[in-house]
Structures are given as C-alpha cells and as structure tokens.
Amino acid sequence: MRIQKVKNRGVLFTYSSEWDLNLYLIQGEKYNYIIDTGLGPISIAPVKEYIKNDNKPIIVINTHYHWDHIWGNSALEDCIIISHKHSREMIESEWENMIHKNKRYARGELEICLPNLVFDGELYFQEDKIRLIYTPGHTIDSISVLDEKEKVLNAGDNIGDTIEEIVPSIYTDRQTYLDTLYRYRNMDFDTCVSGHNIILGKEVIDQIISLV
C-alpha cells in the first residue's frame, strides 16, 4: 500500500493488485473524513491506524454504491456514513449480487452496513469547508467531495482508472455525465483525486470532455 500526502490535510491510500484502488482521508478541524472504505475491514484498517491518536469524530463518505468502495463500511459502523439517497437503496438491493460476483476480492469478513445519512443535492460541513455534491456520471448515485479550503476535488469514479483510460465506464447517459463535467469545470479546485487514478490537475476535466 502506498500512502501520499495531498497538500496539508489530505492523505491518499492506494492499494495495488489487479488495479489501483484509492481511499482518501481529509483531516479537518472538526471531523476526520474517510472517503470510500475499499474491499473490506482489512482494507480500511490502515486508514484507521493512521488516525488512531486523533480523537476527532469520523465521517465516512461513500462516493457510490459499487462494492470496491463500500465493503469496509462495517468496520466503521458506529460512525456517520454518508451517501447519496440512491446509494443506500442500491447497496441494499445489489449487495448479494456484488458478493456473488466479486467475493474473491474481499479483504476480511463482509457484513452489509448501509449509509445512515443520505442527501439529494448537496451537503456542506461549514466548519471544515467540505462540500458533498451530487455528480451523476459513472453511476446514477455518484457524488464528489470538494475540499474548499485546500482546493482538492475527490471525483470518485467519475475519473477513469488510469491516465490512459481517463473516461470511466458510464452507467448514466452521455449528457448527464457531460453536465457533471461542465459542473466540475466551474468549481474552484486545482487538484483532483479519484477512486483509482493518480493525483491529477484540473486540466484532466477538459481532457475528458474532449473524449466523451
């Protein structure tokens, strides 16, 4: 696993196997924000270890319902776990199917743990200047997390897996995804992290728009 600091309060945890998988930590003033929980309790353990001496409450954010982003939720079941309202529904309805197809990738014992706080359009944490935004594209339930203080955007899987494949698999229509990309273009950030890719600059958004 690779651990990278991103500016002053972001930390990117990257697992490399058949593909790279990123978990992201923002160490705010009021809360620690863990964005996505990976492939199970073992997957999220290094993030918990990293902040073990930090007594701030943890807020967990699921960027979308896909298995490789939510299987570690149960290791943080006592925390606030946030997602878009569609994500909770889709995790619940797709759980058994995701287990059946992908259990070989599990890291630790899997137990369903649904988000306990859902939203529709935006959710804002004023004290830490963390904005959660509904940004459908890769999936209909996809959200992004904008760290307004550090100008870092976590776009979830709306950015493709590698720099050679920056256009993700899109489970919505093309126009919906383009609308999200145009929205990104108007946001104030200079650094972009995502579910699988390397740390990128804002210019990646125009690169994707030119390819979609």
Automatic annotation (TrEMBL):
Keywords: Hydrolase. Residues 20-196 form the Metallo-beta-lactamase domain. Pfam families: Lactamase_B. It comes from the Bacteria. GO terms for molecular function: hydrolase activity. SUPFAM superfamilies: Metallo-hydrolase/oxidoreductase. This is Zn-dependent hydrolase.
